Amino acid sequence: MDEICKSCMTRRDVLKGAGRLSAALVASGGIPSVFAGAAEIGSKASVDINDKLDRRCLLTVLRMGHCAPSVMDTLLVDRKGNYEDMVRLTSGLPGGIGNTGAECGGVTSPIMFLGLKQGPEGEGESLLDLVVRGGGYIKRFRETHGTIYCREIQTPEGGISPCLRAMCSGRRLTNEVMGTDLDRLKSEIEAGALKSYDRLLSLFQDRKFHCAHCVLGELGGVIDVNKNLLKGSLGFVGGTVLRGDTCSALTAGVLALGSKIGEIEDSYIRVMSMMFKMMTGGDAMGDDVNKFNKAINVGNKLALWFKDRYGSTRCGDIVKTDFSNIDSVNKYLSSNRIESCREITLAVAERVQIIFSDLNV
């Protein structure tokens, strides 16, 4: 078994409960009749489906099969935006950004959506307001689910229900954050942290540095670096809105892979087949099983390379900086770690191009 398959084991195990989910949805009338027979393959044990779950998101999951694309699709349909390419961009994010178990797709897609809808329009505008809104979303998501990390949400013991709740809270929490006054969101953050964020972002702007955009800029001749991609990736700075989580250069690399090789799954039958494979020990993560799988698997290859090279996929581990602490930020700036981060973005962009070359795309 290769490394990618090993990294998919948790995802495969947790979705063994998919049959029970299907049975519950059939009983509630919330799933097309084509699933009625297939649902019998699940356990007879019932699944408690929270009435507050987003019904549209549930049905989207059942035709797409993976978290981040399902959440993005739900958000886009709700807002009636013509941004179909945004769903494709998220195709490598399931399983926690390249299947690493990091930020849940119920976090990454809303962060992208916030950038798309409420991010700054011009290069000279500050990212602070978006960082505040993104932080507000993360705060609410963590309060709702106890964590923002895929590896802690999806467990073999918990089955698929925690994942569904995480995915199906995305639209509600996003609407809540978008509708909340910015000053109120700022009041939820310590004044020292706001000052630290503002100082760091000002220096980033002066040095023309943005973790994700530096990667995407290097790939301009290889992928379509359009307005949606640039705005959607605005929140991927400093490890996802300066939280020090997944290195935003790596996240940008995964987004770039999705933009080029990502396909959109849109079949209840194929998703049910994937669930059946998961329950029976088949290879549910094969590239031909679900159209998102190829981007997930290739994204995982990029993440494995990144971890091998830098020792971690977390921004905080790599730069040894707490961006909410002004002393830590001053040390980061005085030691010129921005240039070290810039070197990482160049390395990621180069690796993505190598992957594209290997795939002949």
Provide a descriptive summary of the structure in words.
- The protein has 361 residues and is an all-alpha fold.
- The chain has one domain.
- It is built from 22 helices and no strands.
- The chain has helices at 3-7, 9-14, 18-28, 35-38, 55-64, 67-79, 84-89, 105-118, 128-145, 150-153, 161-168, 170-178, 182-187, 191-206, 211-218, 227-232, 248-261, 268-280, 293-310, 315-319, 326-334, 337-359.
- The longest helix has 23 residues, at 337-359.
- The radius of gyration is 20 Å and the shape is globular.
- The model is unreliable at 1-52 (pLDDT under 50).
List its salient traits:
single chain, 361 residues, mainly alpha, 22 helices, globular, disordered N terminus
Sum this structure up briefly.
With 361 residues, this protein is mainly alpha-helical.
What is the approximate shape? globular
Overall helicity: 55-70%
Q: What ranges have pLDDT less than 50 throughout 5 or more consecutive residues? A: 1-52
Largest sheet: none
Strand content: under 5%
The SS-based structural class is mainly alpha
Span from first to last CA? 26 Å
Number of strands: 0
As a whole number of angstroms, the C-alpha radius of gyration is 20 Å
**How many domains, as an integer?**
1
Q: Could you report the average pLDDT, rounded to the nearest whole number?
A: 86
Alpha plus pi helix count: 22
Order of helices and strands: HHHHHHHHHHHHHHHHHHHHHH
